Give the backbone structure.
Amino acid sequence: MSAGYRPEGLVSGDDPERPDGDSTDTTRPTAQAPAPGPVGFGPVAWLRWTWRQLTSMRVALLLLLLLAVVALPGTFFPQRPQDPARVAQYYLDNPSLAPVLERWGLFDVFASPWFSAVYLLLFLSLVGCIVPRSLDHIKALRRPPPAAPSRFTRFPVRDAFASPVARDEAVATATTALKGYRLRRTDGADGAVTTLSAERGYTRESGNIVFHLALVGLLIAVGYGTFVHYRGQVIVVEGDTFANSQVQYDSFESGPWFDEGGLEPFRMRLDRFTSAFDEVSGQAADFRAEVTVTEPDGDEQPETIRVNHPLRTGGASVYLMGNGFAPDVTVTDAEGNVGFSGPVPFVIVDQATYDSRGVIKVPDTQVGDQIGLSGVFLPTAVVDPASDTAFSISPEPNEPLLVLDVWYGNLGLDDGVPQNVYQLDTQAMQQVRAPGPDGEDAPVRVVVAPGQTVDLPDGLGTITFNDLPRYVGLDLRYDPTLPWVLTFALLALAGLSASLFLPRRRVFVRIGQDEGGRTVVTAAALARGDDPGLERELTRVLEPLRPAVGKTDQDRMNQETGQAPDRQQDEGARRG
Amino acid sequence: MAELGQISLYLVTAAMTAYLIATIAFAIDFSRLAADRPSRVSRTADARELVSAGVADAPVVAARPVADAPLPPVRRAAAIGQSTFTVAVLMLVAGVVTRGFAAGRVPWANMYEFTTVSVVVASVVFLGIQRRRDVRFLGTFISLFALLALFLALAVLYTDPTAVQPALQSYWLVIHVAIATSGMGVFAVAATVSGLQLAKDRAIGRGTQGRILSSLPTSADLERLAFRINAVGFVLWTFVLISGAIWAEHAWGRYWGWDAKEVWSFVIWVVYAAYLHARSTRGWEGRRAAWFSVAGFASILINYYVVNLFVNSLHSYSGV
Ligand code: HEM
């Protein structure tokens, strides 16, 4: 496409006068046709030239496009912050490609240097653009509207007629009709001609500036948030209490400026967890955790946490992110000493049936080896004797059953290496096996239901299934910038709406007299941007001045049937 | 409840039939347009010249070039198209409402339902503009779009009406998703207009404007129309991002997490921001800007069909 190609009248280059005069010319940087290179030599000239380029509309546009493009790889490749497991899988599937992608930051696009570079440049451009514009706009707000040009012939929307209204009265009438406009009245030297310059809709430009500045505010607020936030995850079993301190979390992550002392020391007890499922589809219908929160001042408060309804406390929010069963078991050693007792959270592997996996570690045996039990918990168990398998058919605890493999040896807990509580480190352990019904060596399984006590094989001890409390996975987040982020976002929305939908208009009305002493009205109107109502507005302003016969019935009819916009549309070359 | 769901299905199928008839009727009208209508461009231009010559400082008749233009010819096919189109929308609205009752919640919680609501919105936007000015030339495209979208919805995306999972049980579902679906409908209309503008522009560039294209409004008119619709769409989409972030904060504990769906919604927003910028950047107005409008809608379609169906995302509420 050839440079400067402009389909008919989209932007008329020969505007009689830009509605915003020289003060807020939107296309200023490019409109003055930037020099192809810096004027003169030396670093200052170069800097100035670079800055002018950067703050031009064309570069802003290109940067916006670039931003859209560089965001896309974030959906093509798995992203580590969102889904580390899939990144690991990608490494397995594409062992040669993955490290290359890693080097280019493609597994963490939104923290990559190139993504950051694009948006930072864009915002730099934005600031460079919007600051001078704001200053200009503030000046424009203080100035009266510009004087009217001497002739209106080049305005696309204009009118001229002889009015039956006396000259002075006509001026007064027009002034009244222009209520809400900022006015500048110019009386001709001989007092015969009065010109009214009127302008309204400064809010349009204000809105545009608010919008752009709000985006800057948004970026700063979001950025600050990443520095001071914290996030911790913890599992709490019914009846247990969680205290808000870093050591209590199962996992904890925070920004570099986060102050550990800033954790508000509230405590929270999980009293009860309930779930409901749709009877037909089996889909989860409701989860709720009833908790008692103890504020630092000792104030106790019952609260409920649900999905979509986090608990707000101590500046932090507590989200219900997961749940499951934590069978309460007691395991004794060969001599009957209690080696472990308490609830053990099992992780759900199938959301539809709550088939759950878990591990019971029994470190405190007094005789013999340490014991490890790993296996499944089934809320509504069905045992298929033919295949000797068991599975769950419902997430509700109708027929709870633990099915466990048995290991003995060294759990490896004393090495000082942190262990995954859901996995058994079987390096130094042995599994109890025995010949199965078909004579082949197979793992020995222990099956235990609530209330039962079952002997472990090989005389290792016993396991008792005492109770079936539930647990919840909680996510605590603290980000003090949330209200700011929201405020800036809403400001941006408001500014944007103002800037797109509020018309900015100038109306010029000149009232004089011809040789015969008749009042002569000439008028023109101009809008910034696209303004379908401009012609109607001029008609409205001039209405009281118009001769009664000058207004044809056809006109009236058109207005009443709302045909006016259609007519506007035909007015091909109005300013776009 | 099952019967209501069935009734809803019948209504949607009936609406599709009506859309089909509307498509045909509008298409017939469209193909006849050129024969009946004098070119608007030249008429306007003539009028303008007249006015320029007339207005000196002396009182003359105002610059109202086309007020006395002859009444447009009666377009029977278009009238049939418009009434069947209206019937189609009414039936579709009824289908959406009964679906809502069948599921016992707002009827926009999975892809099948989003599609039906989007089609309603696009249709209503079309009818709304049509009330103020004659845009029946869009009818063929809008009803064809409706037909295709509904067909896809029924053939690929259909799910039975059921309650929704806890993450979706929120009044934000009502707000956020309603605005998102509306935004898609609004952008669809704008993209259609921009597409016509591009077709027309291209034909003019080659000097071979066919009968049909020459009967359309000027590119400038199409451009302005597309802009007005896109401006509304952009404000809606901005609100979609904000309300989505608020909802995500409630449901997932973070307001923005660069989930696939969020990335694409962001990309869409940036593309339309670029569109608005392009309109006021010298050398980028007109045809190039129109490409942005089309690209924006293409991103919407990708975000809708590709991301929902093929990408692993937290927003896996497609129900398929
Ligand atoms: C984060 C980057 C930016 C975004 C998301 C953005 C977005 C927008 C949007 C949505 C509009 C439309 C509102 C309207 O038409 O009034 C707009 C208008 C405008 N933007 Fe930006 N903008 C960005 C950066 C910039 C930059 C860097 C500049 C300066 C070079 C700039 C200058 C303008 C101007 C002059 C307008 C008014 C256009 C008009 O009046 O038609 N923007 N911007």
About this structure: Residues 48-129 of chain A form one domain. The two ends of chain A are 20 Å apart (CA to CA). The CA atoms of residues 554 and 560 of chain A lie 10 Å apart. Chain A is about 30% helix and 30% strand.
